[in-house]
Amino acid sequence: MPPTDTTITAKKMSARERDDAFDLLAQFLSADEHYRDSSAAYGDGGPAALRNALDLFLSRPGHGFVWMVYEADRAVGCCVVCYAISTSAGGIVAKLDDVSVRSGQEGKGIGGFMLASLAGALREAGIRRIDTSCHLANGAARRFYLRQGFLPLNEERLARVL
């Protein structure tokens, strides 16, 4: 759990938090060895693509959002959520990506708080499931997601750039 002597909050990114989201996600996308290993397959477009994506989240909230976590007034974590229709769930599900905790803040419960608060907000909105993935070599991320209640699907996510 996050430290109890500070105020930890979570919310959807608004235009006011856009720069905080950019800083956290740019750091993650440029520094994470597992993301970098797959970035070409994703068609990574660098900082310009990230800025465009954040603008799209703000202008098209029906497609998804960025979930921000703050400790007092400092952004310490964020993740990306996109909506999809699931034929197996018979409803809307959330696709979770780019889970990021500020460098130096790992291991303090921020990631667990982020996903727990996100799950609560999604459940209240009627979302049926959260899907995510992690790099095959990222055992730490896999263990983290399993601790958060995610179950393995025994399949691999693939991408095709158009």
TrEMBL record:
Record's keyword annotation contains Heme: no
UniProt KW keywords: Acyltransferase, Transferase
Record InterPro entries: Acyl_CoA_acyltransferase, Bact_Acetyltransf, GNAT_dom
SUPFAM superfamilies xref list: Acyl-CoA N-acyltransferases (Nat)
Domain N-acetyltransferase: 8-162
UniProt keyword annotation of Magnesium present: no
Protein name: N-acetyltransferase domain-containing protein
Organism of origin: Noviherbaspirillum aridicola
